């Protein structure tokens, strides 16, 4: 009997064309396993990693942010010139799993703005 393979969803976005919308989310939650991964990546202790890169917000441990010229703020590990993650190999699970659907929030935002502007090529700028 042939094994049934799960059907892969065709995604409707390209992260390489995004200015880092998901990296601007205020709440980028990190787990203990994320902290272990980051500590190993930076060759720091768990405690040093926790203190240097995270804070408690909304009752959860989240990544710290920095000011950004496009969004109010972005993840502290976001390269603001190249608009990409600087710790991609060590990124938290929430980033690895995003988005968990065929379409990301930025894509939906962009499509709505293009419709409002009446411009199929519109890209928000700083």
Shape: globular
Helix content: 25-40%
The proportion of residues in beta strands is 5-15%
Structural class, by secondary structure, is alpha+beta
Largest sheet: 2 strands, antiparallel
- H/I helix tally: 4
Head-to-tail CA distance between termini: 56 Å
User: What is the C-alpha radius of gyration, as a whole number of Å?
Assistant: 17 Å
Mean pLDDT: 86
Strand order across the largest sheet? 1-2
H and E string:
HHEEEEEEHH
Uncertain parts:
none
Q: Tell me how many strands there are.
A: 6
Give an overview in words:
There is one protein chain. The protein has helices at residues 32-42, 46-53, 93-97, 105-117, and strands at residues 54-57, 60-63, 65-67, 73-75, 78-79, 84-85. The protein is an alpha+beta fold and 126 residues long. It has a domain at 23-97. It has a two-stranded antiparallel ribbon. The chain is globular and about 50 Å long.
